[in-house]
Amino acid sequence: MGAVLLVVIVFSGCLAWSHLRNPLEVLKPNNPGEDWDIADNFDKDVVNFLFMGFDRNEARDRIYTVYRPDTMILVSINFREDEMTMLSIPRDSYVKIAGRETYDKINAAYMYGHEYGMEGIRDPHAAGIRCTIKTVEELLGGVPIHYYVAVDMDGVVEIVDKLDGIYYDVEAPVLANNGRLLVDKGYQKLDGRKYLYYCRDRRVGGDIGRTQRQQKLLIATFKQLKQAGKLVKLPQVYKSLKETVDTDLNFSQIASLALYAREIEPEDIGSHVLAGSTQWAPRGELDICYLVIDEAARVSLIKELFGVEVEARPQIYLPGPRVRPPVENGSEQGLQSGEETPEPPTEGLPEGEDWGGPVEHAYEEPEDNDPDDPDEPLEGEDGEEESEEEEEPPEEDGEDLGKTVG
Could you identify which of 32, 80, 140, 263 might form a hypothetical disulfide with 45, taking C-beta atoms 3.0 to 4.6 angstroms apart as the criterion? Predict the structure, then answer.
């Protein structure tokens, strides 16, 4: 009986291992494209994951109830070709919100779903997630999103700390609004909090620069975890962080992805960002700055990444601010000195938007100056650097890890 039981256990274990080693068998899409022609014919060997980083932490819960996914990265894995691609969607992208006639920043989609609901979904958080996913799918012309992973700021800190930090060559120092140094320039080991500060910083290059740095940091993180054999730790890390990480992937799917990730070479991971132009438009009493997606670039990128052709939409042009803010040299924002303010466009405006007439108003302040500024010390920080013994960075073939990335 003991021998028979041992054989059964070993055989079952081999079957389970074989099952996890075949991710496409484990990753049966939850929403294979209910109402999308593209999704019905989408490459069945490609699975898309939407990663969202929310601007929430425990300290902010005392003030706010709804948050925004300021980081959105679509990770597409082609299991037939063993290829992985990252597509960052800037948070200020001006898009039509799914299920509504409203245009807004794409990171506001969660708020619309959370506050106004989605058909057939009662839970506000689930409705917010679904609205965000559908909005991204519509932006991409129907390319399906099969799974999502959402993490808040506390979750990022905890994950990096549980993985013992990440070595990275920081391009520029990260400063708080009051000028305090948060992360110094140079090659160093980032703990969870410094990792978060670097991910959130957009003083260099704005939101586009931030998305590009995030992709480089994620690839460097992946490379170090792979070389250190820590990818297989990710499922256990997830189990310990369920309060700050939300996903519709189950544990077996996460384990299967962790095993499969060992086959991906970091140098082969593609990095892309949706292109667009900065434009202004009035909303209520404020003038809001948006990133208007370049239609030709959008269509071309979808074809390049997913192999499908989507219809080009009319290029959007926003009417501009009511009153242009002055700059130091006396000229108006976006204009050369002495140039007249152009008339708002009469074509290319999204339908259903009431832009209103000129009014006296306060311009929208950059979110870096908000009272919940992520660059300011988080809960429990006193601004003092912790003294810790310097560790020698890991080495591979005589070269410091991370120095060849980015």
Answer: 80
Count of Cβ atoms closer than 10 Å to residue 328 Cβ: 5
Alpha helices in 228-363 (DSSP H): 234-239, 251-261, 295-306
Report the run of H or E that residue 223 belongs to, with start and end.
helix 206-227
- State the Cα angle at 159 between 245 and 170, rounded to 5°: 125
153-186 pLDDT per residue, tens:
999 999 999 999 999 999 999 999 888 999 999 9
> Which residue do the tokens 């991370």 mark?
402
CA distances from 192 to 103, 136, 156, 345, 361 (A): 35, 28, 7, 46, 40
- pLDDT at res. 349: 66
* pLDDT tens-place string over residues 215-238: 999 999 999 999 988 888 888 888
Q: What is the block-wise mean pLDDT of the chain (406 residues), using blocks of 10 residues? A: 53 43 68 51 83 90 88 93 94 95 94 93 95 97 94 93 95 91 96 95 90 95 92 84 87 89 90 94 88 97 94 93 60 41 59 50 38 43 43 44 30
Q: Which residues pair with 94 in a beta bridge?
A: 105
- The SS3 assignment for 116 reads helix
Domain boundaries, the chain: 24-382
Cα 194 versus chain centre, distance: 18
Q: Give the architecture-level CATH label for domain 24-382.
A: 3-Layer(aba) Sandwich (3.40)
> What does 117-130 look like in DSSP terms, one character per residue?
-BTTB-SHHHHHHH
Residue 64 — φ and ψ, nearest 5°?
A: -115, 160
- Nearest CA-CA partner of 132 in 101, 87, 75, 91: 91
CB-CB contact of 279 with 317 (8 Å):
yes
CB 273 within 8 A of CB 211: yes
List C-alpha distances in Å: 205 to 106, 201, 211, 212, 400: 19, 10, 9, 9, 27
Mean pLDDT, the chain, whole residue set: 79
